[in-house]
Amino acid sequence: MLAAVPTPDHTTLTRYGWDDAWAALVPGSADGAAPGRVARVDRGRVDVLTADDRVHADPRGHALAVGDWVLVGDGTVTAVLPRRTALVRATVSGRSDAQVLAANVDTVLVTVPLDTGLRTGRVERLLALAWESGATPVVVLTKIDRDGEALVDALGDLAVAAPGVDVVPVSAVTGDGLAEVAAAARGTTVLVGPSGAGKSTLANALLGAETMATGAVRAVDGKGRHTTVHRELLPLPGGGVLVDTPGLRAVGVRDAAEGIDRAFADVVELAEACRFADCAHDREPGCAVQDAVGGGTLPARRLEAYRKLVREDEWAAARTDARLAAERRGRWKQVTKDQRAAYRARGR
Fold first, then answer.
1. pLDDT at 312 over 70
2. 86-244 with 257-311: one CATH topology?
3. C-alpha–C-alpha distance, residues 8 and 10, integer Å
4. Least confident span in 56-65, 180-189, 219-228
5. Which of 5, 23, 38, 328 is deepest in the core (most CB within 10 A)?
6. For strand 98-103 and strand 107-113, is the pairing parallel, antiparallel, or unpaired?
7. Can you give the residue ranges of the CP-type G domain (predicted)?
8. Is 281 annotated as a binding residue?
């Protein structure tokens, strides 16, 4: 049975996103455990922001992510409230496992550096993850003070790669665009992007303090050092919270079919006019998508990027099913082995 717990008199939890809907999810068996939000996850320990303090807690077996709402009692996480949203990627292990980058996210700022060349494929991947999470994505084009001539071309490319998504050009050095980014950072906001994209510099500008460490980008290859080595939740001066994340070298998709469709809304809309409902947009007659490519209204690169992500998502699903089946077979083999051992012991 669930019992509503009144929102604390303190304004702290409200600043972190606590509301009456979260309070209503606290079980009546909470036994005085305090609600709080996970601000950082380390091995064997989590930092939780409560109404009174920032406390270190034992996760006690719970698989937690930054942004989770939990109950803490006697230095231990006693319960985890159901997530509203979650930003998830496939891990780089090759096993198609899921890694939750942040929980209960409202806004995802996809940071794209102007000075190292626009990688639209990475942008599309990050947008697919953002849409799948249930949050609202915003593309932030950083370092526009570095190369003004490339800005117009980049904005044109992003208009194609990010249909229906706001694109905000920004310079943390000159301050251009910071007000627009701050306005876009609603609720719980997560910064994602590659190393060297200027996420930590942008985070400091939004936080109004040198909170996150920053580092230079190597001129030889445009790569930045991982100045952010962990995910951490921090309050924004104007309300809401910000989660800075380490640079993502690999952005795998997993269970992201809806997010992929949202990220490629232009392709999906064209596909509705295909002659066959199961059109693979390859050589089928009456394919509206291929007609658009041939007519120059849809870039061939855009279609190939869509098909690549769909194949990857389907592969991850197949790997997950195969792994679960293998695990089930392994468990039954062990059960059979144990049973045979028990039978032999009885016959002695």
1. yes
2. no
3. 5
4. 219-228
5. 38
6. unpaired
7. 94-251
8. yes
pLDDT at 299: 95
12-80 has CATH 3.20.20.60 classification: no
Q: Please check if 32 is assigned to a binding site.
A: no
Domain 86-244, CATH: 3.40.50.300
pTM above 0.90, yes or no: no
- Residue 288 contacts residue 273 (beta carbons within 8 Å): yes
pLDDT digits (tens, 9 = 90+) for 223-267: 444 444 578 999 898 889 999 888 776 678 888 899 999 999 999
Pick from 160-164, 173-177, 208-212, 231-235 the range whose average pLDDT is largest.
Answer: 160-164
According to the annotation, is 238 in a ligand binding site?
Answer: no
Edge-first strand listing for the sheet containing 241-244: 166-169, 136-142, 107-113, 188-192, 241-244, 232-235
Is the predicted pLDDT of residue 2 greater than 60, yes or no?
no
Each domain of the chain, given as residue ranges in start order, spans 12-80, 86-244, 257-311
Number of C-beta neighbours around residue 25 at 10 A: 14
> Is the domain defined by 257-311 classed in CATH 1.10.40.50?
yes
Question: Is 73 marked as a binding-site residue?
Answer: no
20 is in an annotated binding site: no
196 is in an annotated binding site: yes
Tell me whether residue 133 is annotated as binding: no
Is 145 assigned to a binding site? Answer: yes
The answer to whether 198 is a known ligand-binding residue is yes
| Residue 142 annotated in ligand binding | yes
Is 195 marked as a binding-site residue? Answer: yes
To the question of whether residue 143 is assigned a binding role by annotation, the answer is yes
